[in-house]
Amino acid sequence: MFNQARTVMVIGAQWGDEGKGKIIDYLTSEADYVVRFQGGNNAGHTLVVDGAVYKLHLIPSGVLYPDKRVVLGNGMVIDPEVLISEMNNFESKGMKLNMLISERAHVIFPFHIIMDGMIDEYKGGLAAGTTRRGIGPAYADKAERSGIRIIDLMNPKIFKEKYDKLFDLKRNALTRLYQQHITLNKQDIYKAYLNFGKRLKPYVGDVSLEVNEAIKSGKKVLFEGAQGTMLDNDHGAYPHTTSSNTIAGAACTGVGVGPKSIDEIIGVVKAYLSRVGSGPVPTEANQRLGTYLRERGQEYGTTTGRPRRCGWVDLVQLRYACRVNGLTALAITKIDVLGGLKTIPVATKYKYKNTILHELPADLEISRHCKPVYQELPGWNNLTDKDFQDIIQKGYKALPKKMKDYLAFIADATQTPIRLVSVGAERKATITVD
Ligand code: IMP
Ligand code: MG
After folding, report:
1. Distance, CA 392 to ligand 2 centroid (Å)?
2. Which of 25, 39, 74, 215 is in the most buried spot, having the most CB atoms within 10 Å?
3. Top-level CATH class of 7-91+207-432?
4. Which protein residue's CA is at the shortest distance from atom 19 of ligand 1?
């Protein structure tokens, strides 16, 4: 996939959980670096290698290849306790970490986690249904310039200066404004975080410097997006979004690389759609078909275990994703899940009152009440084991004709070529499209 590209980026084109982890895993074999640039432990994927299960939320999945360098960019918000437990889990299996953490990434504290849940609950119908990991409040502090960065944990004096202000501010907000009784101990947290700083120190450095030098010296860099386009804080379904920019451009600010250093931008698209969290999803399926997709696709959140809301491919939304990310190619995942349906609805436009919409509305009122206009595409039978063997051997041409038509319909409507198709959970079940 890299071919002439120095850098490849993998972005979620829908609502997150498109199967980016699998596509990244596939591409990592060609990369020297795997770099995350936004989000935190709201993300998550499970990887199974030789029977061992790895649940990753912060460390990029490239860590499973010993010769790759994995990087956590400045655009991330990092819960050091979670990161250290992932590190410990790795090292306890005898693996060596080849990892760089940005000194400029922001730190999540226990009060962020408390606030996250409280604010989301308070919002009622405007809530995003967050993962309760403290992501939003940590980014809010960053924007407000009260945040504490990874490097601060390594400087007890600076850390204390900033932490004194931040903790008191948060305690006052929690107790006076939100009328919460909190039991957080200021001194205990300070000491614990200083210790976290000691543990992380050997891995902390200047991410922008190293990644730019790597690109210059001909190394291959894979940028790993988290969440998805509809969760982008500017371009997604605001306010039902996450608190970071999740689109391709976020890698520039979240790592410190120029826009021209991004060569390929692959949008990962699930062959249907899933959403975990609240807010309007125009193409959400009815109860019966939603359950069908959820059970066949095992659509339960990796981070929170919540059942995902399932539905159909939305071309209004996908065309938008192609545009705001500048996608150069698509990777379609989990197409096997659609087997056995007589027809498959795909939304081509929306209807609001008597108006046809071809673009995503920004107005929440319209997002809530617009209806998808579907085109029904012919389905195909379930793939048998033999079909599966055939596909792995012969590649794309062995896909059922109607499945190829379905893929062609998406490529045509989005004016974006499909380069990869994933037809099953296993690593080898990913095929390239020539
Ligand atoms: P937060 O990122 O925890 O603040 O959650 C904000 C919204 O994004 C909620 O609707 C979450 O369910 C959703 N979300 C956050 N991270 C992910 C992810 O990795 N996959 C899917 N949805 C996510
Ligand atoms: Mg996920």
Report:
1. 26
2. 39
3. alpha beta
4. 43
